[in-house]
Amino acid sequence: MTQPLDSAEYERLVENLVGQLALRAGVRSERIVRDVHVPGRSTTNQIDVLWDFMDAQGQPHRVVFEARSYRKRVDQGKLHAFRSVVDDIQDAARPVTGVMVTTIGYQRGAKAIASTYGLVVLELRAPTDADFRNRLGKIVVTVGVQTPIIDDVMFEAVEVDEESFPAGLEELGALAIRVTEDDPDPESLEHVLCHGELGELGNPRPVHHVRRDFNPPAALFVRGRKAALVQAVTAQVGDVQAPPVTVTIGGAETIAWLLRDSLGEARAWIADDRQIWTTNS
Predict the structure, then answer these.
(1) Would the pTM count as exceeding 0.85?
(2) Alpha-carbon distances, residue 221 vs 52, 176, 184, 211, 227 (angstroms)
(3) Rounded to 5 degrees, what are φ and ψ at 76?
(4) Average pLDDT of the segment spanning 110-120
(5) Residue 18 contacts residue 32 (beta carbons within 8 Å)
(6) Which ranges of the chain does DSSP label H, i.e. alpha helix?
(7) Residue among 125, 142, 102 at smallest CA distance from 245
(8) Do residues 149 and 197 lie in contact, with contact meaning Cβ atoms separated by under 8 Å?
(9) Residue 169: its pLDDT value, please?
């Protein structure tokens, strides 16, 4: 951000982000409004953004935001003025929390006033290179995939259950072999044929002839139901390497806004797609 947004744009930005954060706050929002006038004990006060909500215990709360799009740090006079507004509209039935949001930061005296009177002071701005220093910027993962090929599967059967055995070859995943009656579960036919027949990752093995013999004959199951006894199965087996897939997670270029607590240093990183990450510093 080469220069601060104008006041109205900055207020709309704050309103939008308050709405996003409210969805993650675990409370029941009643209203989020911008440029509203709230009567106080002594006068009517203009509020940039107001958020009313009920907490999990049913207690109503109000948070009022003062949005200051400045080219310099906020001084203590601005904090005193905002404190007087928060005090004027304070309500025991709906406690009010004051939050000032600005672009550059706060002078030392302004921070002291915020700390003394319980005001929250935040910076909301585009992140700089310094903000990302010594932080994990992005994760790039490249995945190589090799896919097995199984073709021309043929059985040498010694016994067939005509009702259970399909007229055509089922999906390979539906077929399983149990070599002996002592085996607790049938083994997938795909595993029986591919075991020891595929190449190393990055070095696929060409398709070749594979034969498995069973003595005594093994039980062939189709979708969990015994369909035949087979003494051998043959197939053409190999694998092929698919183009690598690269996935990028995060990245400084995806972060649109940084929201920083000027007293506690906690930060929220807000992406273009409205995802939000938080860190303690």
Answers:
(1) no
(2) 63, 5, 13, 18, 5
(3) -70, -25
(4) 96
(5) yes
(6) 7-23, 76-89, 108-117, 129-132, 189-194
(7) 142
(8) no
(9) 55
Least confident residue range of 95-99, 236-240, 249-253, 268-272: 249-253
Displacement of CA 178 from its chain's centroid (Å): 43
Token pair of 204 as six digits:
């696929």
Q: What is the DSSP letter of 62?
A: E
DSSP 75-87: PHHHHHHHHHHHH
Cα-to-chain-centroid distance, residue 243: 26
- Asked if 217 and 159 count as a contact pair (C-beta separation under 8 A), the reply is yes
Residue that is written with structure tokens 């929201």 in the block: 259
Residue 106 or residue 25, greater confidence: 106
State which H helix or E strand residue 150 sits in. Answer: strand 146-160
Q: What is the DSSP letter of 189?
A: H
- pLDDT tens per residue across span 121-146: 999 999 988 888 877 667 788 888 88
DSSP string, 6-32: PHHHHHHHHHHHHHHHHHTTTSEEEEE
Instruction: List, for residues 60-88, the tens digit of each pLDDT value.
Output: 999 999 999 999 999 999 999 999 999 99
**Whose CA is closest to 76, among 101, 113, 115, 122?**
113
Residues 272, 178: Cα–Cα separation, whole Å: 54
